[in-house]
């Protein structure tokens, strides 16, 4: 009996490992939703800028630079899109990118910065997990004459911000307006006639969702909605969506027909759960849901009228930080002071807009800016380029903008 | 056949007292927002956390800390679910594959624990980190099921699955030799060894059981939401937080109700507390505090109930002797 069990175990492990290997190597289309095939099909993983535009990409004799990027990862939807667009821009501008990933606390990020400096990078781009790490990394960069710029974050604490801004080589940040996005979601609900809102938020401490929640609260106050309840979901619950699922079920059970909109501070698994719960409870058309992340099955969710607001597409935030950095490294800074750039979200408020979002923004085969457009953002190629021009490019960033440039 | 005695009824009443007290408290605070109509959803919501907690109970009973069950759940869901989709095996295939992957991962963890003789807390934290990293790489780190394949999370399928897993667990814990051995090892490993029980084998099997139940939780989770994605940086530990609390409540109630039944009672109670916080519209910042305080009160009462009873008895005696004077 023992021998049979051992052989069964060996067989099971071997079969599982074979299939896991198949799973790792699989690159053909294997998605399960029919209506999102344009976004869901997987072709070759890497697409260079040359494959998306007709123009030839030639690299003028630009001195090579090396930039380290400290980011949480490069595999999820957002970070993979960030990497894709950064890699394309770096290739055009003769920059070597070194990614330092997997660091989720201040100490690890500080060590990552030290390692990058030791690897002789010319600059570091940082998405800080916490305000406190920024001045420490900025000091190390200043000592090594390495430039530093932030992306996806600013420095919340005024004292830390003031201290950091005194450090030379610190260039500033690019940041989404999370508060505005949260407020715009509530505005959309209000415009659609909603009165009573439930919030699904994350435990305090994560800057992004904290700011989105501030936006929700400001929007609720400004547009006169009534907040009925709030469910706080742990970060871990966001992986399976069970926290949001239970929360929305409890909203429905507790408030019945009273609650007519739900604002979610994050998406992915939780948004998928939300769609399932609304559908299964027969509340389609009675409760509208909004989220600030893209998610699987979102086209169907909008088509059925379950979701009425989705904000995402801020993949270009790090790219704009990169542009500021590149110009600085080549002695042609866009400004003498620190940059404080605000990246707008792309909103989808209808089924058609979501389809466009999937086709033009959330598409692995598309690089948002062509090689020529990237070059035009570099003073080496375009001496007349200014910070105001960059801000205009950022302000113009939308589905229509991407569509018009790609067509 | 044993007849139900008054003692049994009293014990059942005591066990149900906990959720009953919570129910009455919430109803008193928010009668417009909470009532019996919440119960059907609560009872269904309690099934998934109970499944994970049942597996954890075996580990806790033999004195193990298992922080890897969250990561095992993630990898079971991602690998098992994607394989089922790839091979066109449907929901039944998902159930089998998720369970198998969970079992295998649990066995591997148990094997490492047994071979290297490292404390369970260290082994499972190490495995958690390894499995989280693997879950990030395989099948692009997530599984997504179309809505027509997520009926396991809907009534009555979720209840049927819950009842089947409950029956398996109840029989395993109360009627199979393994269950007796688990309890013996949990009460005293040296005495269990003296009685001829292979304690290492029992502990190894508990790892396998925890992994298996993580696999059960995986297909249940896919059935409930249709989507599971990987995580890193030990965030999978947060997944098992509710299950750990549920298991501790069950262990506290074990003196008055069977552990396996106690798990479900604990799960229902925790879900009720969560609903209660919504009904009362408690500020977000207090919600986690309430859950933690609730756990401390339950554990404190359970572990110190003898001391409390003796104090009450002493007070009564003092009062009686004062009256006699």
Brief synopsis:
The complex is a heterodimer of chains A (407) and B (325). Chain A has 407 residues and is of the alpha/beta class. Chain A has 2 domains: 190 residues, Response regulator (Rossmann fold, 3-Layer(aba) Sandwich), CATH 3.40.50; 134 residues, Rossmann fold, CATH 3.40.50.
CATH top level class name of the largest domain in chain A: Alpha Beta
Major beta sheet of chain A, specifics? Answer: 6 strands, parallel
Strand elements of chain A, count: 12
Strand order of the largest sheet of chain A: 2-1-3-4-5-11
Radius of gyration of chain B, in angstroms, nearest whole number: 21 Å
Greatest interface by residues involved: A-B, 56 and 62 residues
Question: How many independent structural domains of chain A?
Answer: 2
Question: In which range does the helix fraction of chain B lie?
Answer: over 70%
Distance between the termini of chain A: 67 Å
Q: Which structural class matches the secondary elements of chain B?
A: mainly alpha
What is the subunit arrangement here?
heterodimer
Q: What is the straight-line distance between the termini of chain B?
A: 51 Å
Helix content of chain A: 40-55%
């Amino acid at each position: 009996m023992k021998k049979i069990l051992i052989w069964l175990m060996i067989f099971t492990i071997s079969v599982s490992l074979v299939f896991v290997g198949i799973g790792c190597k699989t690159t053909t289309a294997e998605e399960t939703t029919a209506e999102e095939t344009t976004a869901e099909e997987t072709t070759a993983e890497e697409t260079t800028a040359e494959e998306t535009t007709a123009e030839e990409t030639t690299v003028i004799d630009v001195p090579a630079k090396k930039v380290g990027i400290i980011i949480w990862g490069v595999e999820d939807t957002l970070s993979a899109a960030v990497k894709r667009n950064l890699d394309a821009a770096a290739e055009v501008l003769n920059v070597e990118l070194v990614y330092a990933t997997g660091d989720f606390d201040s100490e690890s990020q500080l060590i990552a910065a030290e390692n990058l400096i030791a690897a002789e990078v010319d600059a570091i781009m940082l998405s800080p997990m916490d305000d406190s790490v920024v001045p420490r990394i900025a000091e190390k960069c200043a000592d090594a004459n390495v430039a530093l710029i932030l992306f996806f974050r600013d420095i919340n604490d005024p004292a830390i911000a003031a201290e950091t801004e005194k450090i030379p080589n610190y260039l500033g940040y690019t940041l989404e307006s999370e508060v505005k996005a949260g407020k715009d979601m509530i505005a959309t609900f209000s415009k659609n006639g909603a009165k009573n809102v439930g919030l699904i938020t994350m435990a305090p401490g994560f800057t992004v969702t904290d700011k989105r929640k501030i936006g929700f609260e400001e929007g609720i106050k400004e547009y006169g909605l009534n907040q009925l309840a709030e469910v706080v979901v742990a970060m871990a619950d966001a992986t399976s969506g069970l926290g949001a699922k239970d929360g929305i079920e409890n909203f429905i059970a507790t408030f019945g027909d009273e609650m007519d909109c739900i604002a979610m501070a994050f998406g992915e698994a939780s948004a998928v759960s939300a769609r399932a719960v609304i559908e299964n409870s027969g509340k389609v058309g009675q409760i509208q849901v909004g989220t600030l992340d893209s998610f699987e099955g979102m086209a169907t969710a909008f088509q059925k009228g379950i979701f009425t607001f989705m904000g995402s597409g801020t993949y270009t935030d790090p790219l704009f930080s990169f542009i500021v950095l590149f110009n600085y490294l080549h002695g042609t800074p866009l400004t003498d002071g620190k940059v404080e750039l605000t990246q707008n979200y792309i909103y989808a408020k209808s089924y058609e807009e979501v389809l466009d979002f999937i086709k033009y923004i959330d598409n692995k085969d598309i690089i948002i800016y062509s090689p020529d457009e990237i070059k035009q953002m570099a003073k080496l190629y375009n001496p007349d380029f200014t910070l105001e021009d960059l801000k205009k490019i950022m302000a113009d960033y939308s589905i229509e903008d991407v569509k018009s440039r790609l067509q | 056949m044993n007849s139900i005695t008054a003692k049994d009824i009293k014990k059942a009443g005591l066990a149900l007292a906990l959720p009953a007290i919570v129910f009455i408290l919430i109803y008193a605070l928010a009668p417009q927002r909470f009532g019996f109509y919440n119960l059907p959803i609560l009872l269904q919501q309690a099934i998934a956390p109970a499944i994970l907690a049942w597996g954890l109970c075996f580990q806790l009973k033999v004195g193990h800390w298992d922080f890897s069950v969250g990561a095992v759940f993630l990898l079971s869901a991602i690998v098992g679910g994607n394989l089922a989709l790839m091979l066109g095996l449907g929901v039944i295939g998902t159930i089998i594959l998720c369970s198998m992957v969970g079992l295998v991962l649990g066995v591997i963890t148990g094997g490492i624990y047994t071979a290297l003789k490292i404390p369970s807390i260290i082994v499972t934290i190490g495995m958690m980190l390894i499995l989280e990293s693997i879950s990030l790489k395989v099948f692009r780190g997530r599984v997504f099921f179309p809505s027509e394949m997520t009926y396991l999370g809907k009534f009555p399928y979720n209840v049927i699955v819950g009842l089947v897993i409950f029956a398996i667990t109840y029989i395993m814990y109360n009627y199979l030799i393994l269950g007796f051995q688990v309890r013996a090892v949990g009460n005293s490993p040296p005495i269990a060894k003296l009685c001829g029980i292979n304690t290492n084998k029992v502990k190894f099997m508990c790892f396998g059981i925890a992994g298996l139940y993580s696999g059960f939780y995986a297909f249940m989770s896919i059935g409930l939401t249709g989507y599971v994605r990987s995580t890193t940086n030990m965030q999978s530990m947060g997944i098992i937080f509710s299950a750990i609390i549920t298991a501790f409540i069950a262990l506290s109630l074990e003196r008055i109700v069977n552990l396996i039944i106690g798990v479900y009672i604990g799960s229902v109670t925790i879900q009720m507390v969560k609903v209660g916080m919504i009904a009362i519209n408690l500020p977000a910042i207090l919600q986690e505090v309430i859950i933690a305080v609730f756990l401390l009160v339950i554990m404190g009462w359970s572990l110190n109930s003898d001391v409390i009873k003796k104090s009450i008895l002493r007070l009564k005696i003092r009062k009686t002797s004062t009256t006699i004077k």
